[in-house]
Amino acid sequence: MKNDNIAVGLDIGTTKIVAMIGRKNEYGKLEILGVGKSKSLGVHRGVVNNITQTIQSIQAAITEAENNSGYMIKDVVVGIAGQHIRSIQHSDYISRSNPDEVICDKDIEQLINQVHKLAMLPGEEIIHVLPQEFKIDGQSEIKEPIGMYGGRLESSFHVVVGHAASIRNVGRCIQSAGIELSGLTLEPLASSDAVLSQEEKEAGVALIDIGGGTTDLAIFKDGIIRHTAVIPFGGNVITDDIKEGCSIIEKQAELLKVKFGSAWPGENKDNEIVSIPGLRGREPKEISLKNLSKIINARVVEIIEQVFDEIKSYGHEDPKKKLIAGIVLTGGGAQLKHIKQLVEYITGMDTRIGYPNEHLAGNSDEEMSSPLYATAVGLMMNSINNNTKSAILMSEMEQTVSYEVKLEEPKSNPEVIAQIEKEVKVEESTEKQIKRSFFDKYVEKIKEFLDNAE
User: Fold this and answer.
1) What are phi and psi of 157, to 5 degrees?
2) Which of 92, 239, 301, 374 is packed most tightly, with the most Cβ within 10 A?
3) How confident is the model at residue 386 (pLDDT cuts 50, 70, 90)?
4) Percent of residues, the chain, with pLDDT higher than 90
5) CA angle at 398 for the pair 395 and 400, rounded to the nearest 5°
């Protein structure tokens, strides 16, 4: 069965940018067609702080994904994270003009639109409005109000808010990289789609996504999102601590963390030592693995305690809010040795590592089922649910090019400009292999057409 619904997810993280192209196969599993990964330059703690570098990193990831898959990317679903994200609980209601008619999608849409008009702090914007339980004419705990009768429709909402400027910067980077933005999703929500089962969401679970710049939290209970938070620390601060504590360069600190790091200091013996090459002919540096794990442990404890404070503020000790499924760890930081045991020790809650392999087709590359790719897989799933054709085969693009050539060229300058404005998107897509920014090519096109017209 051929499926034309090609989906693309773009995870713009602090340490890496991942572009993932995929589709659903006949068994309902995700078949990954191509993946592109680039070092994330210009993003700090989940927020873009250098537009030019971010555009270049996005272009590098997109180009690699296209080359691996043979597809040309048109649009992407992007994850939003960063320390500017916060969530609020809000209740709202509408009075229906005709209570004798059943409640339909239009009523729920009206209620959600009303929440979107909430007054926010200056510079803030609502990203998601997620309905929780509904209430109809005072009758509470209704999960699905459609098809019921009632005059007053009320609901509690989980509202996710972020800085408008930060969100627009992400959109600007994507458009400047020559692709369209088809959707925005909160990164912890995307990760939860990839690694949590419906049973866990029903029972109550806290998803902790430990990234490079931030640690994201999403709490589910009764199948509904109840709490989200972004803690502005991640794996990068652990690397920084190792760098400072051992007086070594960042590259060496990262390698030490990944290869020899452990979140549990009792694990290493005193005589276990690793030798690091010295800089420019200097003597090699010897580092005790016990000291290394003490440095890592101190920072991981701090991150987990902050996340646990958020879980407590949700009220997990209340019997009605109990998280029976405990904690699921995902993201690159979840690969740290013994982190599962440390989280269980600090929180007293059952913990497992979340892998996105449950949704992936059996022939998928083993690397793709790493917690590192949980957000990218979740964003791709989101794109599939939107039923968008986010990428097309290069061979189809070639047919488009041959058709474009037959178009008659305009004769005069004003017509040239009008023609470019109409066709710039098509023209751009046919030349996307040239690794230059969207605007450079746009300006060049105008000059070329004007020269020809003269």
Assistant:
1) -125, 150
2) 374
3) confident
4) 53
5) 120
- In sequence order, the 6+-apart residues with CB closer than 8 A to the CB of 99 are 149, 150, 151
Whole-prediction pTM value? Answer: 0.81
- Alpha-carbon distance of 384 to 389, in angstroms, equals 9
Please give the structure tokens belonging to residue 395: 């061979």
Three-class DSSP category at 134: strand
Q: What confidence tier does 418 reach under pLDDT thresholds 50, 70, 90?
A: low
pLDDT given for residue 419 in this prediction = 53
CA distance 114 to 110: 6
DSSP for 80-116? E-STT-EEEEEEEEEE-S-TTSPP-HHHHHHHHHHHH
Calpha distance 297→301 (Å, rounded): 6
Round to whole Å and give the CA distance between 311 and 226: 10
Query: For residues 109 and 114, what is the distance between their CA atoms, to the nearest angstrom?
Result: 9
DSSP label at residue 337: B
Nearest partner of 377 among 231, 162, 192, judged by Cα: 192
Q: Across residues 262-290, what is the average pLDDT?
A: 84
Out of 318-327, 336-345, 423-432, pick the least confident.
423-432
| Model confidence band, residue 46 (pLDDT cutoffs 50, 70, 90) | confident
* Percent of the chain topping pLDDT 70: 86
CB 383 within 8 A of CB 7: yes
Per DSSP bridges, beta strands 285-288 and 273-276 are antiparallel
Q: Tell me how far CA of residue 453 lies from CA of 407, 423, 439, in angstroms.
A: 15, 17, 21
**Cβ contacts of 423 within 8 Å, gap of 6 or more:** 404, 407
Q: What radius of gyration do the chain's Cα atoms show? A: 25
Q: Which residues pair with 7 in a beta bridge?
A: 22
Helix ranges restricted to H, 232-288:
235-246, 250-260
Beta-bridge partners for 157: 90, 131
Q: How far apart are CA 400 and CA 398, in angstroms?
A: 5
